Amino acid sequence: xxLFFYIFAAVTLFGGLGVVLSKNPVTSAFAMITSxxxxxxxxxxxxxxxxxxxxxLVYAGAIMVLFLFIIMLMDVQVEEKRxxxxxxxxxxxxxxxxFVLQLIGVLKNFAAGGSEFRGLGDSDKSDVHSxxxxxxxxxxxxxxxxxxxxxxATIGVVVLSKKELK
Length: 166
Description:
Layout: H1 2-21, H2 25-45, H3 49-73, H4 76-81, H5 86-111, H6 127-135, H7 140-161
Helix pairs in contact: 1-2, 2-3
């Protein structure tokens, strides 16, 4: 089992590195699919079959089809010729910094035993029922926010990919 863990962890890490280091967006998208499949394999090794299948169906399937569709809408040659906007890069670095601070806070809270997560399997309900109940009660608003963000990102790419009329 430990051998498979290391194999799938390496697949996930190399896929993630491929996303970041590749200059071609289509290659990056396929590297992301590889990373998602490695992550799904890790979930399945942990006997979290539902999370593994969702990882394959939702992320490696639906979301990556959406990403590839958006990438194909963009004019990649024109995008490569653009100059860097250092304000946007600074804003992105600020967001990464805020995310790291939030992650540190969550890990400190978890290490202190302050986890608010209601464990699955506390009752005679199935894991799927418990996850569905959590998604549509406690986590309904965050799920809706993620859906709106994906919609806004898609609309933004379509607007940016439109050719200027001369």
